[in-house]
Amino acid sequence: MHHLSQQFINKCSLALSQLQAEVLQQIYSKIQASNVELAQFIDKPISSLSAEQQLELFEQHFEYLLKQELPKLRNILTAESQLDIGLYGICPYCESEMTPEALSKNPAIQTCCQCCKECEKCRD
């Protein structure tokens, strides 16, 4: 039997939706800022490059930007899926229930502090 109340789960669901919107906004803002940087980086209009050249240039330029945000987004989407199937707050490694305190601090957390490789981040 899951230890989290429906009220708490609803609160976490709302927090996850807000986190998702924030992360997507951060990605969008970084892409907009990078478009300006990218336009200054190359000495000819992007439209003059082939589609393949454009894709390669964008991949190189945006790869480092998205490395930080995509894992956050992945964790948020995973947590939302876990909510849908009734596994939210359950550590996938040891199957122990995560504390409401840990979930309140980070609603997208995926592992309990015992199993977390970066446990210091859980406690911060």
Report on this model:
- The protein is mostly helical.
- It has a domain at 6-88.
- It contains four helices and no strands.
- 10% of the residues are buried.
- A zinc finger (dksA C4-type) spans 91-115.
Features of the shown structure:
124 residues, mainly alpha, 4 helices
Overall pLDDT confidence: 81
Taking all Cα atoms into account, the compactness measure Rg is 19 Å
Query: How many helices does DSSP assign?
Result: 4
Ends distance: 29 Å
Shape: elongated
Q: What percent strand?
A: under 5%
Structure summary, number of beta strands: 0
Question: Which SSEs are present, and which pair or pack?
Answer:
Elements: H1 6-41, H2 51-85, H3 100-105, H4 119-123
Helix pairs in contact: 1-2
Report a brief summary of the structure:
66% of the residues lie in helices and 0% in strands.
